[in-house]
Amino acid sequence: MEKHHAKSIHDLALRAITDLTKILMLAKENGSREEFEGLKRPIGILIGQIETDILGRIYVEHPELDDLQ
Question: What DSSP line would sit under 14-36, residue for residue?
Answer without folding.
Answer: HHHHHHHHHHHHHHHHHS-HHHH
